[in-house]
Write a structure and sequence with these properties.
Elements (H helix, E strand, L loop, with lengths): L1 E9 L8 E6 L12 H4 L5 E2 L2 H11 L5 E5 L7 H13 L4 E4 L5 H9 L5 E5 L4 H4 L4 H21 L3 E7 L6 H11 L5 E7 L11 H7 L4 H12 L5 E3 L11
Parallel strand pairs: 2-4, 4-5, 5-6, 6-7, 7-8, 8-9
Antiparallel strand pairs: 1-2, 1-3
Length: about 250
């Protein structure tokens, strides 16, 4: 398994929870705002020392709510991940997975094996703008995303649905509505995340970041209120508005 490292105690990777977080390398998307793009592109990565990881996890498990795996896109390594999760289960630690939900079949394998206690995913809309891929590929992956949401709902797995908010990009509402209508259960909540760019982060595309990161408070409020209109629990990640620098 190719990883970028782990953090024994994290307060920021799952809303309101303490996690032991592992970062896996590789991703099937090319999101221009991604600040983990080096991990996604498999740069500065290393092979997992599973024995050391499990040793650190066991020492930390009384402090955490979840063993949380993120990336990159962890499901690109789903076979190795499946084996790791089975060993984590033996430590009696709940498991959380952060996935882009476009790799439906690997996700279904982990869910059907009853290996996931919590899932986090980003609703990146419009996908043609935020996936960083050609339009036809973005549309196909968006449909897989929707199917994955419906599957998560059918299995009743607690879900953190994150909505990254860009600047000066419209049309997200119809995609948000499509996604929420696939979630026919109550065990999910939404976290609205303003997309932060350079110099606060080091995104894949600084040019894209200059145009579309650091949204206004009004843009954040518009999306939050739209989500709330469906009766969904919404949390807004704190954000101090500022004028983006000219790059």
């Amino acid at each position: 398994m190719l990883i970028a490292g782990w953090k024994t105690i994290s307060l920021v990777d799952v809303h309101g929870k303490v996690t032991f977080t592992l970062w896996l390398c590789g991703c099937n998307l090319k999101c221009p705002f991604c600040h983990n793009w080096k991990i996604a592109d498999r740069l500065d990565c290393q092979r997992l020392d599973k024995e050391k990881l499990l040793e650190d996890l066991e020492a930390s498990k009384f402090l955490i709510d979840y063993f949380h795996v993120t990336g990159g896109e962890p499901l690109l390594q789903w076979r190795s991940l499946r084996k790791l999760f089975s060993e984590v289960e033996e430590l009696e630690v709940d498991i959380s997975l952060n996935t882009n939900c476009t790799l439906k079949k690997p996700l279904e394998r982990l869910i059907s094996d009853d290996l996931l206690d919590h899932i986090a995913t980003d609703l990146k809309a419009p996908p043609q703008e935020l996936y960083g891929l050609p339009p036809h590929a973005s549309e196909r992956l968006w449909n897989l995303f929707l199917e994955s949401l419906e599957m998560i709902s059918n299995y009743g797995i607690p879900l953190e649905l994150r909505i990254p908010v860009p600047r000066n990009i419209t049309g997200a509402e119809r995609y948000i509505e499509q996604a929420i209508k696939r979630l026919r259960y109550d065990d999910f909540y939404v976290v609205v995340n303003p997309l932060l760019g350079f110099p606060l982060t080091s995104p894949r595309s600084i040019e894209w970041s200059r145009k579309h990161c650091n949204p206004s408070k009004e843009e954040i409020r518009r999306i939050s209120e739209f989500v709330n209109s469906f009766g969904v629990m919404v949390f807004v990640k704190s954000y101090h508005e500022h004028e983006p620098k000219n790059l």
